[in-house]
Amino acid sequence: MTDIPQDHPRYESLLAREKVAAGVKMGITSIQGLIAQGRGESFDYLIGERSTESALYAERAAVAALLLAKNPVISVNGNVAALAPEKVVSLADITGARIEVNLFHRTDTRVHLIIEHLKANGASEVLGKNPDATLELSHDRRLVDSRGIYTADVVLVPLEDGDRCEKLVEMGKTVITIDLNPLSRTSRTATISIVDNLTRALENMVKLAREMKKERKEELVKLITTYENKKALSEAISEIQEHLKTLIAEIEY
Ligand code: PTJ
Hints:
Layout: H1 11-26, H2 32-47, H3 53-68, E1 72-76, H4 78-83, H5 85-95, E2 98-101, H6 108-120, E3 126-127, E4 133-134, E5 143-144, E6 154-158, H7 162-170, E7 174-178, H8 185-189, E8 192-194, H9 198-212, H10 217-225, H11 229-250
Helix pairs in contact: 1-2, 3-9, 3-10, 3-11, 5-9
Bound molecules: ligand PTJ.
Ligand PTJ binds near residues 39, 104 and 180.
């Protein structure tokens, strides 16, 4: 990985780019993952590269759902494994979630390498190598584990494709997504849509999970029952509008 100086004004963004590129070289991230990261970056510019109020609102509800779940699962793809393996492992540990590798561009080698990468980052068990159940989908994201995604009541699916998100919601699961694009089919279909950068979102969620684990169950239930996803999504779009207005005001002509 290229050494990015920490005082570079775009340090976080360049570091993320390096991590995804390194993921491709290691064989854990698909080449298409580079395009996905670029799409994400452009939305992050529009958002202002910060966790907005609406993102924090969704992240709090998502953590409550994970903490209350009977069988929570975090689904990991090649981008997530490259960008935040240690944060996935921390969140899984605190919330008691299982981790399952589920890939769009699936190969056995990539699944194996991602599992090993997650284990090197502290995971004890990672599902996904021997899928024994299928979702009604025509692509490889249909291949799931009956102890994991298939029977999960709450699934966190960062950087998802709309198809599987829709299917999981149809199956009655609480589906939490992390996607910087508030207009994507994924964001519009999920139960809890977190419009935030994966790295920031997982960092916030790990912190929130540590705090919220001490809260009474009723408080967590209240967070979920009062949560409105349409409100979170429309506010995410308004926050982009407001940020753009500020930028326009800064350009004097
Ligand atoms: O590893 P695989 O084979 O399962 O493939 C994974 C990718 C991500 C390549 C695959 O799922 C894919 O092609 O995804 P899409 O359709 O490009 O969607 C990715 C979505 O995630 C887009 O809406 C992006 O804006 C968003 N996104 C990209 N990077 C980030 C992000 N959202 C949050 N944080 C990011 N770092």
